[in-house]
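dumping this here before i forget
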Amino acid sequence: MPCTPVLCAADLEMPLTRSLITARARFEAARSLPASGDSRLSRRHGHGFVVDVTAHLAAAATRHPIEPVGYLTAQLEQAVAALDYADLDTVLEDPSDLGIARYLGARLEGMDVSRIVVAPTPFLRMEWEAEGRQISARRYTFEAAHYLPNVPTGHKCGRLHGHSFEVLVRARGTGAGALDAAWREIGAWLTDTCLNDIEGLSNPTSECLSAWLWQQLRRELPTLCSVTVYETGRCGATFDGERYAIWRAFTFDAAVQRPADTEGLAAARVLGHTYRLRLHLSAPLDAVLGWATDFGDVQRLFAPIYDLLDHRAIGDLEGLADQTTESIADWIRSRAAAVLPSLCRVDLEETAGNGVVLSFGPTETFRV
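structure:
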């Protein structure tokens, strides 16, 4: 399938920036799922569940303006406490992933939750959104070689090399069995091969591969939402049937100073994090190169900003309103947008799963 250029974020009507916060909690529990139709799941079994919640920043900030991320995290941990080391068959009316999401949503009432993700394994998750939409997502892996034939001379991606690729497939109103059935033949086709030898993948950039996979999977999954290709753990590309987006991940180590709580419950203190940062960009594909933006260019252009963040005291940053995670993310957004005009979203986490999302482009629904 040829990689067709699409509109970039600048060509579309830009919505207002959406400020969201995220929180993560874990719990261990047993359950049985006789309604699943799978004999294995009908038996009593257990998982180490991971739950991710996304909520509108304003709701948590109203309750704790100093640390809204920490407040949401505490509320989520309190909500999952009754599920930890429990038999979900006796605790919940519906012990399925959807039942867990609804249970937690009811206990986070007033937090303006927009999305709850329940992942019983690292490779399977269920996404429940406030509007009632339910999405199943499955992560697959394959080993393959490739090269990019159209890059400038000397570019490392022009050399034949390989990756342990991962693919995240998301579809509405279906289960893991349907996702597995749709992937099975395609996964076998891609594994232990050179992608360039496959029809339609003569220029197998992450963007082109995500679009090719969309075309193949859509035949069996008419409710397909998006396909994300992880070329490495630090970068990837998503296609949702209309738009392409890429992301590049970074970490930086920094100290922050938090003021005292106005109610006197927390004293002023200095603390630090290894922040997890992900920059999302959306742009039309280059007709020759087949990518929206070179991952290497993102790293190179962002490097001067990164150097201001890594192994620094956040309070030394010029133009920072305060040292909350949302303010740091907005500081990064304003400066990164100047050198990366196709930037459309910034994710910043204090710890894994706990942070903020600033979305100001058409790819706000892309999930990675």
